[in-house]
Amino acid sequence: MASRGILWAFMVALLASCGPMVTGSAYRDPNMDFGAIQSVGVMPFQNLSREATAADRVRDVFINRLLSTGAVYVHPVGEVARAAARSEIQSPAAPSPDEVIKLGALLKAQAIITGVVQEYGEMRSGSSTANAISVSVQMLEAQTGKIVWTASSTKGGIDIWDRLFGGGGRPMNDVTRGAVNDLIDKLFK
Amino acid sequence: MLACGLWGLSGCAAAPDAVTAEDRVRGGTPLIAVFPVENLSGRPAPLGEVRRLLIERTRAYGLRVLDEAALERAVARHRVRYTAGVERAFAKALEQETGAEAILIPSLELYDEANPPRVALFARLASTGEAPTVRWLDGAGAAGHDSPGILGVGLIEDPRALLGRAVDSLARSLARHVSEGGERLAGRPAARKFQPKIVFRSDALDPVRAYSVAVIPFFNKSARKHAGEIIALHMMRTLMGFPGLGVVEPGLVREELLRFRIIMSEGVSLPETETILGAVNGDLVLNGEVLEYTDPRGLYGAPAVDFGVLFIERSTRRVVYSSYSHNAGDDRVFFFDWGRVNTAHAMASRMAWAIGERMLLAPAATGAPQTPAGQADRRR
I want to staple B228 with a disulfide (CB 3.0 to 4.6 A). Which of A64, B43, B218, B308 is the partner? Predict the structure, then answer.
């Protein structure tokens, strides 16, 4: 009887070890006081998709959405570009911690946000097509250059409805707004 | 019976209005110099014909137009190369040398001869003298199948006929403006679907206060040539429709951008905002970017417009309004093409008007919820 119990325990442990490790799609620095952030600068997003204007589109929606929350002030993109040029940043889409500190001082911002657009556009599977987006953003504290928040979101794609009935999925703009809303929700959670 | 029915139907079609006695402007009309047509269509277009039609229709409505030779002499004497706007020195010289009190600047947005044809154009009236200002701005955009009617009796297949209607509606609007002593054009409330999708509006923006707005050409990230200038014209037209708002003549803004050698790579910065607004004595600077501005060709497909706007205030040095808008001509169209929009011009003008409403009217007046814009959008 005891050996059967040990066998059951072993089986359960084995099954549990085969399961995927569940991790969140967001990170928040527990020591960071997010209430102290009054203004942020959003750097140009890095574009890893095939659509040339994807990064600009997603950044534009992200800035407007962040401003519309009323929680933080987002510096105009022209002001951010000017600060990046003055601090001679080689790659504005991926600034180093030192460059973040310089940028923060020039903009008088408490945080800098960077982002990467991994997927943007139509995806195909068999005869089905749908629009999809995958984007990740990170917030760096302007005083230290440290990452205090990261989040990623993937929206759109082919679901069971598209496979069965076609239809091409939701428009790209709606999918983009959905992903950006998801990211903002993760920031204010 | 059939003939009677057809006669009745043709009466219902949107025929160009004849020049009536009421429309004619009598006495005391300003002398207007009509500039060459700015081509924003990105392809060859009958610009000479558009200008000739505009002069003809403007005269037909009783307005006085400056003699062609006199305008040419003034343009040649002052070596004016840029005619899509008015520069300070030329505005003053034109008034002194020819007596012209205003300049009419036409801009052709679209001229597509494919079936069905599509035409879109703007015209604005700027004053001459020491300080030129925009007095009137209107636009017209139409497709040949906008009002097909029963059995297609309302279809227009001739692009010249469509152009004639568009020019006539602009000339009529100008004549009405002059006869009514500078009354502003009031737009219709925009449908809910044309409202901006994401909005930020600062409390610092006072809907009662008078503002002077300097419009900087929008950044064009779309495939359509001159889309930045087109959206800037749509926004100017909207702003001119709200009382208390004035728009700085774009020619003056361009002059100052060149004088201070301001080159914007990504957007307007705060020092540039201060420099421009200081030079033209403005309160707000309007800038933004256009991501899509597409007109379909032929019968199939729908126009698509996608842009963001940003207003920065001079005194607070902060963004006071920012929004993102996108629409397609077949948005929320389910049956028999009801509610379909056939030109990007018609759609963009409604989208721009919806931005003006959200920006300058009290929330209750626009039917928007009495909550911060962000929260309202999130609930949707």
Answer: B218
Alpha carbons within 13 angstroms on the beta-carbon side of residue B129 total 11
| The pairing of beta strand A73-74 with beta strand A39-42 | parallel
Cβ–Cβ below 8 Å for B291 and A56: yes
| Cβ pair B372:A68 closer than 8 A | yes
Enter the DSSP assignment of A36: G
Token digits of residue B368: 């928007």
Alpha-carbon span B173 to A80, nearest angstrom: 42
Domains of chain B: 31-179 (3.40.50.10610), 192-377 (3.40.50.10610)
Phi/psi of residue B127, each to 5°? -80, 160
Of the pLDDT bands very low, low, confident and very high (cuts 50, 70, 90), residue B151 is confident
By CB neighbour count within 10 A (0-12 exposed, 13-18 middle, 19+ buried), where does B201 fall? buried
Q: Is the peptide bond before B116 cis (omega within 30 degrees of 0)?
A: yes
Per-residue pLDDT tens digits for B323-359: 999 999 988 888 877 888 999 999 999 999 999 999 8
Angle at B27 between CA B24 and CA B33, to 5 degrees: 80
From the list B147, B137, B145, B141, the residue with the least C-alpha distance to B163 is: B141
| Residues B145 and B127: beta-carbon distance below 8 Å | no
| Start-end of H helices in chain B | 2-12, 47-60, 68-77, 88-98, 159-179, 227-240, 250-259, 270-280, 344-360, 363-366, 373-379
Residue closest to A158 by CA, chosen among A147, A166, A148, A146: A166
Strands A26-28, A147-156: pairing kind: antiparallel
Nearest to A177 among B197, B200, B310 (CB): B197
Give the ipTM.
0.81
A64–B contact, CB cutoff 8 A: yes
Please give the span between the terminal C-alpha atoms of chain A, in angstroms, as a whole number. Answer: 49
Report the distance separating Cα A57 and Cα B219, nearest Å. 12
Band of residue B183 on the pLDDT scale cut at 50, 70, 90: low
pTM of this structure = 0.86
Name the phi and psi angles at B237, rounded to 5.
-60, -40
Per CB-CB distance under 8 Å, the chain B contacts of A76 are 267-270, 287, 310, 312, 319
Domains, chain A, ordered by start: 21-187 (3.40.50.10610)
Q: Could you give the count of Cα atoms lying within 13 Å of B63 in the half-sphere of its Cβ?
A: 31
Token pair of A35 as six digits: 């209430």
**Cβ–Cβ under 8 Å, residues B97 and B84:** no
For residue A164, the tally of other CB atoms under 10 A from its CB is 9
B24 alpha carbon, distance to own chain's centre = 24
| DSSP per-residue string spanning B175-230 | HHHHHTTSPPPPPPPPPGGGS-SEEEE-TT--SSS-EEEEEPPPEE-SSSTTHHHH
